[in-house]
Amino acid sequence: MLNLISAYYLMRKLPYSPRAKLTRLQNNKLHTLMRNHLSPFYLERITSPRSVSLDTLHKVPVTDPFDFRSVSPQMRSKRNIADQNLISLSTSGSSGVPLTVNVSLREFRIVQLQQLRFFQIHGWKPWWKTVIIWSEDKSEADSPLQKIINSQKKLINVTAPLDEQSRLIQKHRPDLLFCPTDMLHTLALWARNNGIVYPPVRLIATCGSPLLPNMKALIQEVFRGKCVDIYGPIECGWLGQHCPHCGLYYFNEDSFILEVVNDHDQPASQGNILITTLERHVTPIIRYRIGDRITMAPDNHECPVKFRHFKSIDGRSSDVLMLPGGKTFSYMHALQLNSISGLKQFQFVQISLQSFVFRYTKETGINDNHLRQAVQARLPDEMLPGLVFKEEPLINPEKSGKYKLIVNQSKGITP
What we know:
Layout: H1 2-13, H2 19-36, H3 40-45, H4 65-70, E1 86-90, E2 100-104, H5 105-121, E3 130-134, H6 138-142, E4 153-157, H7 162-172, E5 176-180, H8 181-193, E6 203-207, H9 213-223, E7 226-231, E8 240-242, E9 249-251, E10 256-261, E11 270-277, E12 288-296, E13 309-314, E14 321-322, E15 328-329, H10 331-334, E16 343-352, E17 355-362, H11 368-377, E18 387-391, E19 406-408
Parallel strand pairs: 3-4, 3-5, 5-6, 6-7, 16-19, 17-18
Antiparallel strand pairs: 1-2, 7-8, 8-9, 9-13, 10-11, 11-12, 12-13, 14-15, 16-17
Helix pairs in contact: 1-5, 8-9
């Protein structure tokens, strides 16, 4: 516990420290990673790991999500950590490949400290009442704020009908409201259309999908508070967040090395993101192409936070399906399907209030009836009568390069 307190004391000051101090810290962490924590996969790809520094990192080959699937066992570091002492984190599959990465308890705590730093920078106090709209699954519910926010925390099941979620928010009167972006935007639309007035919320935090300007404006109008966004794919961790001083995003560069490259993997101010994790020692990730595109702020951008800033991000986006009875279905519900053996890609498409298409691809030799039964067992009853299965040879990504898991093509169905 003392080590965590000391680590947090240093972390709080780092965003405001000179760039030279951050560069030294990044180089030291990178050297430790290269000397002690490379996985078999990277030991084969990096010929002289001890010579790698910030100046030479660009010579290391880029890692793609498909590398994880093809050599998954080799992505783990050689460190001898029993599986029962690891935490498994699963991604949505929006890159086309659902991934599972393992982290140690220490690495998980580092992410929690980053979260604490973020909320405190935005004014959070330990006595604030907090409402989290999330999955009931314990591993998901614990991940955003567990052991950071105190006993004032209340969890609202993201699968509950919108009127029930709304009633609980009014009942708990939160100071801090935390929810996936697409779901909170859907709830805000429903509340506005139904004339719901909420008590003012001090701070609203979103994550999971890009927070577009029109979405942010509506959420702030309905919940009457400041809305800030968090960015980071699960396999890498908490990469960045809104800056309280300038309003742009900034990266947590004390835990990551960020590169922005063009389509030829050359440095650029606008392009693809490559991430090297400095704190992930169980499953290290080096020059990993996460599939998002970004526009950086100018190098001379003035802000008290000295971490690098970015203006915008083009990443995963997802719709929300409206179900009979006022329920919804979002990408958080769809994550349950990643555990189905033989299911490669999938996408839900809503045609009308009671009509849905499940597009999917599967591994060769997989029994189609068994796969469909496994899918149906994980879906809400309201979707089953109008659900049509459609096997595809391939599901193409969006222009952003990400796969949209939830597509609402219905007309006239609003929250």
